[in-house]
Amino acid sequence: MSDAALAQRALVTGGAGFIGSNLVRFLLGRGLDVLNVDALTYAGNLDSLADVAADTRYRFARADVRDRAALERLFAEFDPQLVFHLAAESHVDRSIVAPEDFVTTNVVGTFTLLEVARRAWGDDGARRFVHVSTDEVYGSLGETGRFSETTRYDPSSPYSASKAGADHLAHAYHRTYGLPVIVTNCSNNYGPRQFPEKLIPLMITRAMAGEPLPVYGAGDNVRDWLYVDDHCEALWAVAQRGKPGRDYNIGGDEERRNLEIVQLVCAELERVRPASDNAALGGRAYRELITFVEDRPGHDYRYAIDAARLRDELGFSPRESFESGLRKTIGWYLDNARWVERATSGAYRDWIEDNYGARLDR
Ligand code: NAD
Ligand code: TYD
What we know:
The chain has a domain at 3-194 and 226-254 and 298-321: NAD(P)-binding Rossmann-like Domain (Rossmann fold, 3-Layer(aba) Sandwich), CATH 3.40.50.
């Protein structure tokens, strides 16, 4: 299919979140009309879309994916040819503290959206419903091996279990009703506009503020990192050329241990904003802020993606290396101090206290 033959109206759920706001921008750049459907939870941030808000091809609707009537209305009005479903509760640590919203949003919300799409689309096989999921559904790897699309689901946290449930529903809607659903399972994303509860933006923002950098356990857990723009490109490739009913793993082929990442963040900050020029550091180097804290319960040791299917069938490979992506990411956070300030005020402080208070006081 050429770009010209492609669908013009895309509905993105969770478009005010980290990946969603980058995807909305990406799709507008491709000339699509985009409807962003987002409930604006703590993780939804319209500041991330301020620069596209006035674009006549962009529309925002505040709605919850658990609200069937609202979704039906939006489908009737906008008649999307493409759905990218990203709305979710997405943070593992929060799912350990308060799992309920993970089940209702991730499982029931996905069910509700699938059901509304099925009824609105009938048997129109030219539409596409891209269900965006995570590699965490596969559980944990040891020192070797990688996840492929045939790896057995074995989720560890309430977050990954709820995403696994949603993935199964998405597949069931294809097998049972023929809904043109594609499921993607992606590794850890990083990049601009990520809420500073996740590892990389948390470490950047805390280091800049001279606060302890809490590394769980010994910091030897491994994640496979993908720059968010590469994820957007991959989702686009899947929507254009992916086969309905199939799943695609998406990864960066960039495995790093957590401690190495925190050290890289410190080194890059030292280079671009030396601690000696940052009053918040009080004479310390950034790396002196690294603090080992109590581990996450059920902490998956290692994730790594075998993305051969995406490469061989759809011709997709990521462009950004981890080092260049991390430099860009740090640059973005330094250049967007106001976004950071607004994101880390209010309820954010309560989360830091809830999750890290006792760990850092030890
Ligand atoms: P995020 O937490 O930054 O954003 C989630 C968005 O969903 C927010 O804008 C929030 O307001 C919205 N939302 C939450 N509950 C909602 C509800 N009930 N109704 C409507 N909107 C709701 O998440 P993210 O990191 O951008 O992740 C987006 C998707 O990608 C998620 O489905 C996640 O599981 C998946 N994913 C994320 C990663 C990653 O590394 N961040 C990796 C693989 C897959
Ligand atoms: P995170 O960004 O929460 O993503 P996920 O748990 O979905 O992989 O965490 C990435 C890794 O970083 C994970 O192994 C947990 C670790 N981590 C810390 O060591 N300290 C922290 O404060 C956070 C948030 C994460």
